Structure formats: structure tokens, C-alpha cells
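Design review, sub-item: ligand-bound model
Attendees: FS, YL, KQ
YL presented the inputs for the S-adenosylmethionine complex:
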Amino acid sequence: MREWTAETYHRVSDPMLAFAVPVLTRLPLDGDETVIDVGCGTGRVTELLLERLPAGRVLSVDLSSNMLNVARRYLSDRFQRQVGFALADATALPVSARADAIFSTATFHWVLDHPALFRSLYAALRPGGRLVAQCGGGPNIRRLRERCYALMRTPAFAPYFTAWREPWEFADAATTERRLHDAGFADAQASVEASPVLQPDAAAYTEFVTNVICRPHLTYLPEEPLRARFIERLTEQAAADSPRYELDYWRLNIDARKPGMP
Ligand SMILES: C[S@@+](CC[C@H](N)C(=O)[O-])C[C@H]1O[C@@H](n2cnc3c(N)ncnc32)[C@H](O)[C@@H]1O
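KQ shared the predicted structure:
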């Protein structure tokens, strides 16, 4: 589950890039800071962060070696000494009280233990350091999740999902603010916003759902024809929606500060 089809993610992740652009504008930077990108993926968003740090540095952290390998190939030539890479879990960042800021997009919902996550982020920041992040939250992809549950209960698929474990934490804003406060953060602010994404056609919808959203489901299915049938059913339902092939994304925005002076 920790590995991704990273080359495909790199190609299909335009929606994540679009989500990230306004999140980046929430992070004030002078250009010489040290920033950790938590869950950097293949580095498309990290690239935008690096462009804002001509005299600074980004530590790109990810749990997937496939993702990090693509990110390294994508970023190293252009940014050389500006960028570093670390294979690590967000709940145990390999940095202590040094980062000026932590930035993260489309990642925290993959981390089930948010209290442990926020403690780890807090420990990595220097006093006065900022956390600016966005992930799935609130009713994120509820329609698609309900369709998955319905399919998982059908006789064709039910035997494979007896040990199903929910792969995401889609927290609400109030819970997130409380957890940030409990971890020691000041000025904690969280909010949830609707961010629907339209896929252009059945093929794009199928590829995106296969390689991004339903990765966890597909790991429970032992044969390719079963996996293909599962995604086909979801694509057929999305084709009947209005608008067609819409992903009902909701994003949780997170802003907080570690108390103290640098
Ligand atoms: C949807 S991708 C987002 C990548 C990038 N931030 C973007 O917006 O395109 C989620 C990333 O989070 C990483 N991830 C998931 N759980 C993680 C964890 N516990 N610690 C670090 N990275 C994690 C995944 O490996 C994946 O690269």
C-alpha cells in the first residue's frame, strides 16, 4: 500500500497541482528558508515551492520510494543543492526543531493518526515556524466512497473485502483545530471547502481512479479481471452522473504556527 505507480501519478496529477497552487500562496516566504514538503510525491508541487526559494532549501519527504525516485529525477538537475530527499513517515520526520516551515498537499488524509502526525510536524519546526497544508477532509469523495462500499458488499467482491480497513482520515475542521492545539500549535485554523474535479472522459476517469483514489481497494483484489471490473462499475456510474465523470473532492485547509521566536 505504501507504493504508488509513480510515473502514472506524475502524468495524471493535474488536479493535485491545481489544488496546491492556492495553498502555496498562503505560505509567506522570503526565499531563503528551509521548508519540508511532507508527502512530496513526484515533485510537481515541490517544484513550485523551490521556485519561491532561490536561496533556500526544500527537504522532500515521502513514504514511497517509487514517488521519491521520480521526484529525484524530476528535480535534481534543475535545483541541485536546493533540494534534498528523505524516505520517511510523516509521523516520524527525520528533522528536529530546524524547519522554518512545513508545507504539504494531498497527503495528510493518507496518515491515519493525525495526533501523531501533528506532534511530528511540531517537533520538526523551529520556534515560530509555520505549517501550511491541505488534504482531503470532511465529506471528501463521499459519493465515490459510497459506491465503493456498495460494490464491496456485492457477492462478486464481498469475499475479498472481509478484512477491509479504511485507508483515509478525512477529518473535519473543528477536530483538526483541536488536534493542532493539543500538539502545541498556536493560531490553528482549519476549514473545509468543496473542490470538485471533472475528468474529461471515461478513460481519464478510469486511469485516475485506478492509480490514485482506489489504489487501496485494488490491493484487496487478487486478479486483474476483478480489479478491472471493480473500476468499470465505478466508471459506468460516473458516466450517468450530471456532470459526467465528476470527482466530489472536498479539501481541508490547515494553517498553524509553532509558538516562540526564531
Ligand atoms: C496524492 S500524493 C500527493 C503528492 C504531492 N504532494 C502532490 O500534491 O502531488 C500523496 C503522497 O503522500 C505520500 N504519503 C502517504 N502517507 C505518507 C506518510 N505516512 N508519510 C509520508 N508520505 C506519505 C504518498 O506516498 C504520496 O506520495
